[in-house]
Amino acid sequence: MSRIGNEPLLDQLDLAAGRRRDAAGVTAAGAAWLASASSYPRSTLALWRERPDAPVVLPCGTAFDVVNAPAVFGRPMLDRLWDEGPGSGPVAVHRGRMLLFAAPGTAHRLPSLLEWEEWGARGRADGGSRAGGVPPLLCHGNGDAVTVPAPVGGAGPGRSASRWMVAPDTRHPWLPGPEILLWAAVRAARAAVRISIFPPADQDANVYDVSRRR
Question: What is the rounded distance in angstroms from the CA atom of residue 90 to the CA atom of residue 168?
Answer without folding.
Answer: 5
